[in-house]
Hints:
Blueprint: H1 2-21, E1 37-46, E2 49-57, E3 62-70, E4 75-83, E5 86-91, H2 94-97, E6 102-108, E7 113-118
Amino acid sequence: xxxxxxxxxxxxxxxxxxxxxxxxxxxxxxxxxxxxxxxxxxxxxxxxxxxxxxxxxxxxxxxxxxxxxxxxxxxxxxxxxxxxxxxxxxxxxxxxxxxxxxxxxxxxxxxxxxxxxxxxxxxxxxxxxxxxxx
Length: 134
């Protein structure tokens, strides 16, 4: 009886080891960070104007079209870039934007399109701290 339970324990350990060894992680972004990863991020403010950085980690020569639009469809910025490993920074004038949402379309000549949405929220935070001196 003891040898049968030991065999089941060993079998369970071997099955668990094979399951962990041959399982592939599932990424929320399809694990697409390798060849043609595109990233748009907010990097801060310069003179109270928002600055965004677009990184195109393409390994092959390609041409990209970048379009910034407001929520009404008005084109605020439109330009084309060509090359590999492109990084561009965009300073947007906040008086032109208002509080509307923006969409950014990054389209490659090879056919891939990525769309980003930029929503701005203004909050006022007041923090009060009390420290004991003595």
